[in-house]
């Protein structure tokens, strides 16, 4: 955890995973990112605020129908933002087909038929584990880059090895 990928430790082996990304993978990564950035509470507060405003104005009668509809639309759009982002991210990468990722002591390399990407451990601020994913979060203030390791696409032994590799290089956040 201290070296952040700048020095190489002889390792216990690389962890390899082949998978096709899903919308759910992106949604979970975005939800983790939003929790780290504390956007979830803000999103729910705005959702409730707009829904409440719509219901309050609805008491004014049929003359306020357009305003009520706009308030409720805003409420639904704010609540659904992570799902819209996940759909957009999925459309952006789904055409690349199967992803073959290898995590080792230097970082993570992902290969598709069209793109090869290598990210050193120093590119990440940390990781968080969910029930079905290991999510790595980038160092930039907005956490624009996330890495997702879907546990369901790997053997339990590979998930344990990946968890050990992450713990060695990144803090839990």
Molecular structure report:
- The structure is a single chain.
- This protein is of the alpha+beta class and 173 residues long.
- The protein has 2 domains: 15-20 and 96-169, Pleckstrin-homology domain (PH domain)/Phosphotyrosine-binding domain (PTB) (PH-domain like); 39-91.
- It has 4 helices and 7 strands.
- The strands form 2 sheets. Strands 1-2-3-4 form a 4-stranded antiparallel β-sheet, covered by helices on one side.
- β6 (133-138) and β7 (146-150) form a beta hairpin.
- Mean pLDDT is 89; it is low at 1-11.
Question: What's the total number of strands?
Answer: 7
The portion of residues assigned to helices is: 40-55%
- Here the CATH topology of the largest domain equals PH-domain like
Strand adjacency order, main sheet: 1-2-3-4
Under the CATH scheme, which class of the largest domain?
Mainly Beta
Low-confidence stretches: 1-11
CATH superfamily of the largest domain: Pleckstrin-homology domain (PH domain)/Phosphotyrosine-binding domain (PTB)
Q: First CA to last CA: what distance? A: 13 Å
Range of strand content: 15-25%
Domain tally: 2
Structural class: alpha+beta
Rg, nearest Å? 20 Å
**What value does the average pLDDT take?**
89
Number of helices: 4
The largest sheet is:
4 strands, antiparallel
């Amino acid at each position: 955890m201290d070296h952040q990928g700048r020095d190489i430790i002889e390792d216990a082996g690389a962890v390899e995973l082949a998978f096709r990304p899903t919308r759910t993978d992106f949604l979970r990564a975005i939800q983790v990112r939003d929790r780290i950035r504390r956007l979830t509470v803000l999103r729910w507060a705005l959702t409730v605020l707009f829904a409440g405003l719509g219901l309050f104005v609805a008491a004014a009668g049929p003359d306020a129908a357009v305003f009520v509809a706009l308030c409720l639309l805003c409420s639904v759009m704010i609540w659904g933002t992570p799902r819209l982002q996940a759909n957009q991210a999925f459309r952006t990468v789904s055409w690349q087909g199967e992803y073959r990722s290898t995590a080792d002591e230097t970082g993570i390399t992902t290969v598709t038929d069209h793109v090869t990407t290598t990210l050193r451990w120093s590119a990440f601020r940390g990781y968080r584990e969910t029930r079905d994913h290991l999510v790595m979060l980038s160092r930039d203030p907005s956490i624009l880059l996330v890495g997702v390791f879907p546990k369901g696409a790997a053997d339990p032994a590979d998930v344990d090895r990946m968890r050990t590799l992450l713990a060695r290089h990144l803090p839990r956040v």
